[in-house]
Amino acid sequence: MQLAVWTYEGPPHVGAMRVATAMEKLHYVLHAPQGDTYADLLFTMIERRGKRPPVTYTTFEARDLGKDTAQIFQDAAREAVARFKPQAIIVGASCTAELIQDDPAGLSEAMGLPCPVIPLELPSYQRKENWGAAETFYQIVRTLADKSVVREPREGRPARVNILGPTALGFRHRDDLVEIRKILALLGVEVNLVAPLGATPEDITRIGQADFNIVLYPEIADEAARWLEKTFDQPAVRTVPIGVGATRSFIADVAELAGADPTPALGDTSSRMPWWSRSVDSTYLTSKRVFIFGDATHAVAAARIAREELGFEVCGLGCYSREFAREVRAEAARCGIEPLITDDHLAVEDAIAAAAPELVLGTQMERHIAKRLGIPCAVISAPVHVQDFPARHSPQMGFEGANVIFDTWVHPLVMGLEEHLLTMFREDFEFSDEAGASHHAAHSPRKASVQAVSEAPVEDIPAPAMADDDGTLWTVEAERELKKIPFFVRGKARRNTENFAAAEGRRQIDLETLYDAKAHYAR
């Protein structure tokens, strides 16, 4: 384990909590001490859910360690079943409770509870949140699915599908599901069930009635989908419909398995991204360098969109989930770069600084990193904060999701150009900080202060002052000129100039050095 101020994933019991919170009439009995109950805030504060997670904590204290903590767990389980009357419960231990080895699985099995009990063995010190969510969903499906189910013949009825993967605290899962349902309706495909999100344990029993599965989020649903394919002979669509091209491929794959005509769904004309990518305006953003980091599903999709649909150059690509590193490595090879597989945010920050991209696409942490480095950023993947659980409809999947991606990615770069223009004209009287807004007639510009011009002889005027008195390399004039360079390439210009000055043996960077460096690198 590693002590850090930030983690991309929580322990695996948080993943189990995401599945339990997404489902209905399922309860999670978590053997955990006081202090391990923080996860409730993830759902009520960040995701802004209207109800708290269906979790009962044993909340044993330090003084209980000398007593029978196993009895505390059994009492909590009985009270939870009596109070909430769930159709099923899942039981497990937090990373701290795991150390006392009370075995919630064995304890609950011996209790004879009046509902199915699904034990979870989640190794907190070897695995993390997404794996915990996938393992929990797999165990729920494996335990509750009615293996005696026989599918009806396909003749005379529409195809049925299970949509697998959406959970609580997922990045735009709720909104993605709306878009997927729209596509399936256009194809005439019935939804047998969606799970985990909104499903009950009784719903899971009929999961075998579907003709095939759609794996929307492989990190959550891939393991369960493989078991369903083996047990019920259900093929799976694994194309993730993020971006225009992937959405079209997804429609074709679903139509093939459903025996449907894809034309109605492919005829959607709501996406603006293809039009814009063909327009003259898009040439401003062609070959912009972009650094991408997140979970594997969203990172790979983002790299494909950037490369194939927007004409960006992917200069960095990585993910924090080692279980899906193979997919990221394959996409990085197509981009001609080395992948970054790590859960250390400091390594990610170093990689971004070294790549000097013009746009960063990542998680909440990459947003902070980009802000510190002065680079535009858009969030594309969990983990995220409250601003990325918008109240409005804001999907990532389908044709409408492509519109949202277009807005989210392109606007930071376009607004960056506007900011650069404002900076260039800052000294102009009309754009000065002293001037009021030009469209507000009541706010007339304040009189600009004019500094008196020195009448001293030229030789008496002091040399350009340093920006600081601590030996800073740049003069004030050079720093002022550097700020006229667009902020999304300013860092690279600074580094190039400093490298040039070091190579030339210049101890100070003034205007002449800045211009000489510009000419040197322009050759």
From TrEMBL:
Transmembrane segments: none annotated. Its cofactor is [4Fe-4S] cluster. Pathway: Porphyrin-containing compound metabolism; bacteriochlorophyll biosynthesis (light-independent). It is an enzyme of class 1 (oxidoreductase). Pfam families: Oxidored_nitro (PF00148), PCP_red (PF08369). Its EC number is 1.3.7.7. Keywords: 4Fe-4S, ATP-binding, Bacteriochlorophyll biosynthesis, Chlorophyll biosynthesis, Iron, Iron-sulfur, Metal-binding, Nucleotide-binding, Oxidoreductase, Photosynthesis. Residues 12-413 form the Nitrogenase/oxidoreductase component domain. GO terms for biological process: light-independent bacteriochlorophyll biosynthetic process; photosynthesis, dark reaction. Residues 436-457 are annotated as: Disordered. Binds 1 [4Fe-4S] cluster per heterodimer. The cluster is bound at the heterodimer interface by residues from both subunits. The keyword Oxidoreductase applies. One of its GO terms (molecular function) is ATP binding. NCBIfam families: DPOR_BchB. Belongs to the ChlB/BchB/BchZ family. This is Light-independent protochlorophyllide reductase subunit B.
